[in-house]
Write a structure and sequence with these properties.
The protein is about 50% helix and about 20% strand.
């Protein structure tokens, strides 16, 4: 059986079952209503007999009162009154004659003895047990049908006449189930035929509608065949399968196969596009230039992370929020950058390196590249906007120059250290031999020579330490990269230096985000880098002490740490040289610490910058070292907490 035929049969069967269920509910409701009508009608008849019985008793007792006050005399008087009352007898006979469902009517005493009845054989006989007619109201359709259409029985409707709060006489109306069956059977048969006809009609209608609804699948199948054939992803085997499926007689199966093939092709292409987008996003996140791609209707479809650095309006919360917004929603016309960008878009031409001065004094270059639609009509498919911070470009050039110098120094020191260390070792050996040959008796004469020998030995040891330091600096470092919370790395150094900071009256405050700042780094090397910066700030303080502020924050894809001191500052002419090996402004400094810190950050893919104010009377006097590391798996937050800490490590070697 074809799948289309199966669907039509399934739809028809489901519709038939649903209509059949509704028909059963319909017949059940009709049965309930008819039983309720029968119960109410017989209740009225029983009440009528009750009223006639009461009137007959009252009239008969007034005409023939009991001979005494005993119960037997009262029972005999009541019985005689009922049997002599012709109106009661007429009412009872009329009910039996004209009611379609009533079999008999009787009146019994409190003990169940029949006093009067339309059945002469039942008089003075105990009344037989009968089920109550009202019990059918509480039962379901199944019980009602079983009672009415099952074994013949008589159902009772009764109403009691009380005396002193106790039943005295009871009026009974007997309803025969056979009579109910004869009364219910015609309308029930009609209802069942109607339900069956409705179910069959619904089933046929469902089949026709299913056939009509599935008919467009022929056209859909043909279009899918065309789309699948046109796809360049199909190979020879797939095309053969497609043609074989297209000649089949089952349209639904052909459509299903075509959709499966198209879905596989779409998933393959989507995987390629996803990988391409991931690579593109990674490349854009590492750029310092802001890159934005707009459609022809000026809606942003691609925004790099660095764009937020150029915007000062509230819309610059993140590059994800800018995607999908109009150009006017991103660039405010009242800002210098916004006015320049909107004007460049309005002119409709190419813009190359147009300079703009922002409100904070930064120099920015904007470039606009129009993307042709390739149809030859000069249509515009989109626009690529590039924002470049000239200060960042200059800083990047400076960092590259410093890195180049450090690399050259590394090559030089590697060779020099090797060449110098061997002669020093030979000199040490010969000095030891010379010292051993000095006889004890000649020490007074050769005291001066011995002193010079000792000095020479000390100088050679000092030279050896310098050469060893130079070799250590130039030796390749082996990084042990792990995920670390940068707050904890800095916290360890703060605790390490606490004692010495307190001894020198230097207070340290730390401002860090509440959320982790996860970076992939070598914890020991990063602690060494932070330690060098803290010691450099501490040694820049005057004798009376000062304060160091350590600030940590997240700027987009980078974790930023600032170490600011209020020391004497670094003169502007010396700032370009502070990261050079062996350059120092301190009398006892080695000139290695900052160069080592810079190298550690470079090995981690980070960057470092410094700004300083050496004016003696300036309130902003001091130096701020800032380094950035790429964010790892952690996330940064906006809330910050400030903690006052005394920090340092007593006895540490001076690094700068």
């Amino acid at each position: 059986m074809r799948l289309k035929t199966k669907l039509e049969v399934a739809a028809s069967a489901l519709t038939f079952a649903l209509v059949l269920l509704l028909s059963v509910l319909f017949v059940s409701e009709l049965m309930r209503q008819r039983v309720e009508q029968t119960v109410k009608a017989n209740d009225m008849l029983a009440h009528q007999v009750y009223l006639m019985t009461r009137r007959a008793v009252e009239t008969g007792l007034r005409a023939s009162p009991p001979v005494d006050r005993s119960d037997e005399a009262l029972h005999k008087a009541v019985t005689d009154a009922l049997r002599r009352d012709q109106p009661l007898t007429d009412v009872m006979n009329t009910i039996v004659r004209y009611s379609e469902t009533v079999q008999d009517v009787s009146v019994t005493d409190a003990h169940g003895m029949t006093l009067v009845s339309t059945d002469p054989d039942a008089i003075n006989q105990p009344a037989t047990f009968r089920f109550g007619l009202k019990s059918l109201q509480g039962g379901g359709m199944e019980r009602q049908i079983r009672v009415v259409f099952g074994k013949p029985r008589v159902l009772d409707t009764s109403q009691a006449l009380d005396r002193n709060g106790m039943p005295f006489l009871v009026a009974h109306v007997g309803v025969r189930s056979t009579f109910l069956k004869n009364s219910y059977e015609p309308w029930l048969r009609d209802a069942l035929w109607f339900a069956l006809a409705a179910a069959l009609a619904a089933m046929l209608s469902a089949g026709v509608l299913a056939n009509v609804a599935l008919r467009p699948l022929e056209a859909i199948s043909a279009r899918l065949d065309i789309l699948t054939r046109a796809s360049g992803e199909l190979g020879t085997d797939s095309s053969a399968q497609l043609l074989a499926g297209g000649t089949g007689s089952d349209t639904v199966i052909r459509v299903t196969k075509s959709i499966d093939r198209l879905g596989e092709q779409m998933r393959t292409q989507e995987a390629g596009y996803t990988a391409l987008q991931a690579n593109l996003n990674q490349m854009l996140d590492t750029l310092r230039d802001g890159v934005m791609l707009f459609t022809a209707d000026r809606r942003a479809v691609m925004v790099s992370d660095a764009v937020a650095y150029f915007l000062t309006t509230p819309v610059s919360e993140g590059h994800e929020e800018m995607v999908g917004k109009q150009l006017e929603e991103i660039f405010a016309p009242e800002t210098a950058l916004g006015a320049a960008v909107l004007e460049a878009f309005a002119e409709g031409g190419q813009v190359s390196a147009q300079g703009v001065t922002l409100e904070d004094g930064r120099q920015v270059q904007i470039s606009l590249d129009r993307i042709d639609d390739g149809l030859g009509g000069g249509g515009n498919m989109g626009t690529l906007l590039t924002l470049r911070d000239m200060e960042s470009a200059a800083q990047l050039g400076q960092e590259l120059e410093v890195a180049r110098r450090l690399a050259a120094i590394g090559k030089l020191t590697s060779g020099v250290g090797h060449e110098v260390k061997n002669p020093i070792n030979a000199m040490v050996v010969h000095l030891e031999l010379l010292r051993g040959k000095l006889v004890p008796g000649g020490r007074e004469a050769l005291a001066g020579a011995q002193r010079h020998v000792d000095i020479l030995a000390g100088e050679m040891q000092r030279l050896d330490r310098v050469v060893q330091t130079l070799a250590d600096f130039s030796r390749p470092m082996e990084l042990h990269l792990r995920e670390h919370d940068l707050r904890q790395v800095v916290g360890v150094v703060i605790e390490l230096t606490a004692a010495e900071m307190e001894e020198r009256a230097v207070g340290v405050t730390v401002e860090a985000p509440q959320e982790p700042m996860m970076v992939r780094a070598d914890a020991e090397l990063m602690q060494q880098a932070v330690l060098n910066l803290l010691l450099n700030g501490m040694q820049a303080m005057p004798a009376g002490g000062g304060a160091i502020h350590v600030r940590m924050r997240r700027e987009h894809q980078f974790a930023v740490v600032e170490v600011a001191d209020d020391g004497e500052g670094i003169p502007a002419d010396l700032l370009p040289r502070i990261f050079e090996l062996y350059f120092t402004t301190k009398p006892k400094g080695s000139g290695i610490g900052l160069a080592m810190t810079y190298r550690i950050l470079q090995l981690h893919g980070g960057a470092m910058e410094v700004r300083s104010n050496a004016e003696p009377n300036s309130p902003e006097r001091g130096t701020v070292f800032t380094f950035r590391l790429p964010i790892g798996a952690g996330v940064g937050g906006e809330g910050r907490k400030v903690v006052a800490v005394g920090a340092s490590h007593k006895g540490l070697e001076e690094r700068v």
